[in-house]
Amino acid sequence: MKRVLLLTALCGLAVSCTTTRPTPSHQPADETEYYVKASPLEELNRRILPDPIGGLGHSNDAQLSVTDIRLTAKYTVLYMTFDHSRGQYGSSSSTQISIDPKAQLVSLDGKETFAFVKAEGIRQTPDHIDVQAGDKAKFVLYFERLKPGIDEFALFECKDSPGLTCWNVTDMHVDNPAAQ
Prior knowledge:
Layout: H1 2-16, E1 35-36, E2 47-48, E3 56-59, E4 64-71, E5 75-83, E6 95-97, E7 104-107, E8 113-120, E9 129-131, E10 136-144, E11 152-156, E12 169-173
Antiparallel strand pairs: 1-2, 3-12, 4-5, 5-10, 6-9, 7-8, 7-11, 8-10, 11-12
């Protein structure tokens, strides 16, 4: 009887001391994964990890994330993922997505703007693509190249309205040294 009580007490102690912190050795499956399972009750215990790459911004749409930012000789290139299983809309139906060709990148001080040039993997408004429940759409957006020295910027597509969520992403950063 004493062994059973001792074993029960030890089991209770072990369960009460279990941590729900993400393990520091966790490596995301891909650049868009920001959550890790913290316990068997994941939905109740989600913990957001910091942006694993840095400077990829904060989107007003939980289903949209920037997975990479690159500068070429001609363009500022944003690699994007729309994950229909995340966010406020859940995954019970399909949705339509597109990029407004009037979208632009805006410098941190708001004085400089850089126009949208082209897209790969997504259509421009008023055309659209359908994203089925639980699916992801990966696409690439090309904008005019940021001027040297502008390393913090935002994406501004439009103002949200009833029934329309625009893609606006703030706090993006890319290494872009000033010309010497």
